[in-house]
Design a protein that fits this description.
With 226 residues, the protein is an all-alpha fold. The protein has a single domain (8-225), classed as MetI-like fold, CATH 1.10.3720.10. The chain is 80% helix and 0% strand. Helix 2 packs across helix 5 (87-112), helix 4 packs across helix 5 and helix 5 crosses helix 7 (129-159). The N and C termini lie far apart (72 Å).
């Protein structure tokens, strides 16, 4: 009976090769997280407009992209279109669209958490809707949404491993290559799991720092409340 073993020497030897795929993993994650935020904010603002048609379109977009598996959408964009997109373009579009749906819901809930008094005070000063959103509401909503956005960033980072299915040479694809050459997939997949975990730890650290930054900026010190 075959008993799998972990080859620690193979792990050490494979790290430099796997890390050559790190720019793709991080690059796709950063680009799609940024684009997801831009689209998410746009969807949130559109969903607040009085037009029922626009609201219905936004709700359908969010519902559809939250319900379709990322791999299905990725294959649809890469294999299903009449025009052949590059693998990198298809991956960026896929992850940007799927993340935007979740981010839009995060911002919608965060904006709902902003006190109505903020809206009333801004309109009392005669500020237009766009300036109210940009200068007053969205900064507070972003502070509320930091923990949820951190989770989205982690999911995006891990989700980029799907890009290996369309031959993007990220760290997971590199692990598959070494595993196929050495016939030791277990060792390589454990190694790539550790790399993804460490990257998520870094994101979690950044999330905590950002939360503390906003806490120190917006909350009064105990002695100031007396």
């Amino acid at each position: 009976m075959y008993i799998p073993k972990i080859d620690f020497q193979l792990m050490v030897d494979s790290i430099p090769f796997l890390l050559t795929g790190l720019p793709y993993t991080l690059g796709i994650s950063l680009v799609t997280f940024f684009m997801g935020n831009v689209l998410g904010i746009l969807l949130t603002v559109l969903g607040m407009l009085p037009s029922k048609l626009i609201k219905a379109a936004v709700r359908f977009y969010i519902s559809f992209l939250r319900g379709v598996p990322g791999l299905v959408l990725l294959f649809l964009l890469y294999f299903g279109l009449p025009y052949q997109l590059s693998a990198l373009t298809a991956a960026c579009i896929c992850f940007s669209l799927t993340s935007s749906a979740f981010i839009a819901e995060i911002y919608r809930g965060s904006i709902a958490g902003v006190s109505n008094g903020q809206w009333d005070a801004a309109y009392a000063l005669g500020l237009p809707f766009g300036k109210v959103m940009r200068k007053i509401i969205l900064p507070q909503a972003f502070r509320i949404s930091v923990p949820a956005l951190g989770n989205v960033a982690m999911d995006l980072l891990k989700g980029t491993s799907l890009a290996a299915m369309i031959t993007i040479p990220d760290i997971f694809q590199k692990a598959k290559i070494v595993g196929g050459r050495t016939f030791d997939y277990m060792t390589l997949y454990i190694l790539v799991a550790i790399i993804y975990w460490l990257l998520c730890v870094a994101i979690g650290w950044g999330q905590t720092r950002l939360e503390r930054h906003y806490e120190n900026r917006y909350q009064m010190k105990p002695e100031a409340r007396i």
